[in-house]
Amino acid sequence: MQRTRQYKPTLRAPARTAVVVASLLTLSACAGQVGGPPLTPAQAQLQQANQRFAATVAEGAVVGAVGGALLGYLAGGARGAAIGAAAGGVVGAATGYAVAHNNLSQTHTEANLQKAIQEANADADAYERSANASSQIAADLRTQMAELNARYAAHTISAAQFQTSIASYRSSADTIRKQLASMQSEGANLRADAGTYRNADLGRQASRIDGARQREAAALQSIEASLSAVPVT
User: Fold this and answer.
1) Under 8 Å between Cβ of 95 and 102
2) Considering the entire predicted model, what is its pTM?
3) In angstroms, what CA-CA distances link 227 with 155, 164, 171?
4) CB contact burial 34-60 (16+ within 10 A = b; e otherwise)
5) What does the longest C-alpha to C-alpha distance in the chain come to?
6) Cα–Cα distance measured from residue 64 to residue 102, given in angstroms and rounded to the nearest whole number
7) Which of 80, 92, 178, 183 could make an SS bond with 213 (beta carbons 3.0 to 4.6 A apart)?
């Protein structure tokens, strides 16, 4: 008796590669949200505001990886798909937040211009929230440093315990540094677009981002000064 083979749909190489890359990116994004030291309210606010940019970057990486995998497969089969996915992911991540800017550059329509303004306004809102949170984080750290210094001087905590108590502030400083670089880049793009498209709204958002960047840079300077005074284990 002849057996009937059951049909099992399979993914071709580029699709498999894209799915794997997207899954890894999703897991990577989720990994940073679990565990770690407890956050202050201001640190939680900084993290929440930063999620807008983290999500945009991750989305750009997935799109880039899928496109790169397909192009790579056409050029070199399964191996080319893997290489293309990796390269596409890097490119996608680097340009994720600027999707609206890129669309406007490629097709100058009123709809694309309004979308760019909307995205710029949302970015400026998030950056201003980050600047507010960063200033509060700097103030919280100064208060905590005074308390920890007193306890350390009284020998009620060790240098290692001191370091553990302020570990979350180092993570916040890392987040702020990344945001400052992003602010610098986006502000420059917005100022250029404001001139190219003769649009005052884009210029206003650039000014808002510049103001937030200055406040956040001052907060980072204060945080770094406090962290430099932490006793070494």
Assistant:
1) yes
2) 0.68
3) 19, 12, 11
4) eeeeebbebbebbbebbebbbebbbbb
5) 87
6) 14
7) 183
- Nearest residue to 78 via CA among 8, 17, 9: 17
How many other C-beta atoms are found inside a 10 Å radius of the C-beta of residue 181?
10
Q: pLDDT tens-digit profile of 154-201?
A: 999 999 999 999 999 999 999 999 999 989 999 999 999 999 999 999
Angle at 21 between CA 15 and CA 23, to 5 degrees: 100
Domain segments of the chain as ranges: 12-22+55-94, 100-233
Length of the chain: 233
Cα–Cα distance between 194 and 119 in angstroms, integer?
Answer: 14
Secondary structure (H, E, C), 116-127 = HHHHHHHHHHHH
